[in-house]
């Protein structure tokens, strides 16, 4: 089997997991890691028996890398991913993809110009229960989708990042809503605030309105003393509830409550396996750069809505 030669840029908490999975997958071969922190890069490289770098340009020049994961700080994601793309390599860039939509647009356009594969790290889509929920919406086995709600709350994260809870956390659920409804929202209304952080918002309630008077609600924070990750899709004939943490799916209709059995799997492993297979087999990815751009645009609209106290209407 031909293996995709990979690298990881940014070897912090999440980048370390990307390196581990690339090492475990049959479809990939991890060649190098890169981080501005030389000690951290060296430690991760030693753990996975690969070469460490502190310069992306030097790494791409010396190593025969075909694709890379970019897992740096949120505000530097796009500028680091651009370096990979401009060198003709495929890239998976972690959410939120860029510091702003202008950067995201440039990344999407550059990837298209260079003819390389660009995908965004929305790993919720790879949870088997969400795939079943998407299929149920498409086939209308729960009737017509009326509304969806997501709750993603927890204590303050291990690291204090460079963006607030909307771009760091809620953007996962924004992407899921656009995926389930299969369209962009026509309007966004949100309330955000900061209880324990001066610089960024640490809680948000977001309402997305879609064509046909359908709505989605996203609640997120870094304040709640226990972690909850739940998605509920309400159809005209049934309700589906997915617990992201246990991957347990529940379907309720007028007659019964069903809990389908399926094998739980690591979403990151499924995501990176899909990334590799799309490149090796020249297939379209489940998540494109445009999907990332749309989610980021919606997240920015939520922040604008909260700042102005107004509904933001989208084209």
CATH class bucket of the largest domain: Alpha Beta
CATH topology of the largest domain: Dihydrodipicolinate Reductase, domain 2
What strand line-up does the widest sheet have?
14-13-12-11-7-10-9-8-15
- For the record, what is the CATH homologous superfamily label of the largest domain? Dihydrodipicolinate Reductase, domain 2
Order of helices and strands: EHEHEHEHEHEHEHEEEEEEEHHE
User: Main beta sheet: strand number and arrangement?
Assistant: 9 strands, mixed
Tally of helical segments:
9
Assigned CATH architecture of the largest domain: 2-Layer Sandwich
What's the pLDDT, averaged over the residues? Answer: 96
Helix content: 25-40%
CA radius of gyration is 20 Å
What's the structural domain tally? 2
Q: Please indicate the percent range of residues in DSSP E strands (runs of 2 or more).
A: 25-35%
State the secondary-structure class.
Answer: alpha/beta
Tell me, what's the shape? globular
Unreliable spans are none
Query: What gap, in angstroms, lies between the N and C termini?
Result: 46 Å
Task: Count the E strands.
Answer: 15
